[in-house]
Input
Amino acid sequence: MEKNKVHRLRRVFVWELPVRIYHWLNALCIVALIATGLYIGSPLVLQSSSEASEKFFMGWVKTIHFIAAFLFFFNFAFRIYWGFVGNKYADWRNFIPTNKHYFKEMWQVFKMDIFMMKGKEHLSVGHNAVAGFSYFITFILFLIQCITGFGLYAAMSNFWFAKLFAWVPTLFGGDILLRQVHHWTTWLFILFTVVHVYLVFYHDYVEGRGEISSMGGGWKFIEDEVFDEVKAEKQKKLQEKKEKMEAQMKPLT
Amino acid sequence: MSTIAPKSTPTYYDEVVRKGYTRRDFAKFCAMMGAYLGLSQSGLAQVTEALKTKPRVPVIWLHFQECTCCSESFIRSSHPMVADILLDQISLDYTETLMAASGFQAEEAMKNTMEKYKGEYILCVEGSVPTAADGVYCMIGGKTSMQILEEAAAGAKAIIAWGSCACNGCVQAAAPNPTSATPIHKLVSGKPIIKVPGCPPIGEVMAGVIVHVVAFGRIPELDGLGRPKAFYSKRVHDTCYRRPFYDAGLFVETFDDENARKGYCLYKVGCKGPSTYNACGVTKWNNGTSFPIQSGHGCFGCSEENYWDNGRIYSRASAFPGFGIEATADKVGKVALGVTAVALAAHAVATNVRKHKLIHNLEKEGQQSEKDLENENI
Output
């Protein structure tokens, strides 16, 4: 890079409002669920001189957990829907590999961001392939947590939706193992959250494209040169395709 | 010891009278059973009518790998009639613990009942069946328990699996399960099986299940795990009299602390009530005297599948599989979190080293823009 070259940045609209609302609601629910969940698993020993009937502390902690769980589930269901109707950065293909290019990008992300090898920096305006795939894994965790959670909840609820999960304890042979799976999975959420937050800071720091603020306003800022590069690459590909077609046509004529 | 009854068998009521009980005692007994089963008025009338008119149902009660606590619990059901009528006179045609006959005569009695009442008798099984080493770990009269079970199950109308051994293997099926102790439902197919888990199950619950089968001629409504809904649809936690302390967040921390004396919730000292489905909180034990939580000890979860391996008795946390007995989910999680934090710190350092130029350029670019803005020479 030449000395003191200043890039012109172009504003790209990446995260639509529904995606941003989903993200922050999801974050809020997960924090609330982890905090209340760990408390339910191992509550503090309170000392009190008042009657038990005057207190409902554990009851409230559980209530918050259940409300957050319902919010979390329907928010998650909405996000799946948005994966089919949202913009290209929200599309489900960002999370599930459907072509060779996806794996190629994954390898490049590993090379550049994890093994810190020297080479061409990759560009991902939305999710990069590794991030996208790791979100797919978290979606599976979401599903496990919802199924085990509502499975535990089903026996104490008359709500038809919770009753839909009444089969789950049968699958696990009872609540004891079910509760454990629910507890273990909580820790995977904690680990994910820590790594996720770190990587957001990392990308913002090394790319300077507004990774952190993108979940606020929805914009990322991409260098003008990138647009030229992308354009050139597209034309090159088009040209190659044309030449290939012509080469195939020749013997016929 | 009852003998093989002729076809013109007396009814339950006939036996009640013969035993010297009054009609009033009989009505009380029916009302009690109806209450345990959660029956309505009409259902109660049906039970009374059935016990009055129906001939006794032959029962074969097999004992395999077990400790006989189920039988002990059954004969201690709170109403004396339970033992007198349902046991004595329900025609326990074969039960190792209680029959007078032994050896050849006893085996003969069972054979006779099986032939005479083919398709009519109820088979009660107490205990699990060892399948390792061709079943040599539990043999009676020269036959393996598997052979005995297969023979007896073939002509049974329904099978009742008494206790946790028969329902899920209980302690002898706990790791490493040296005899391959196997619960009944995994060995018998094509017959209705009622699971009545517990170590032991509550006597009144056992009596209730039998009365239901006798009175209505069909098995009671079962849940997803094959247990009668009337007794196993609520968690011990939901019917526990210490529940208000749980909801308030008031817990016992050790068994001899001030909170234990105040009778606070035993959740933190490993009570399995929140994950155990049983009727202990309502029916209680020993004529409704008490149940574990009432006597200051947490619930074991004895009626839950695999309870020996699934949880520790005096702690909420369970061993994390693959990490040894001391490792709980929280311990493993905290270590994983620490490792992650160290890895991220290392990554952050590596980023500043390996991508130094990139970061430096970004900083310079930013500083240049800042200067340009100040000097207005954009």
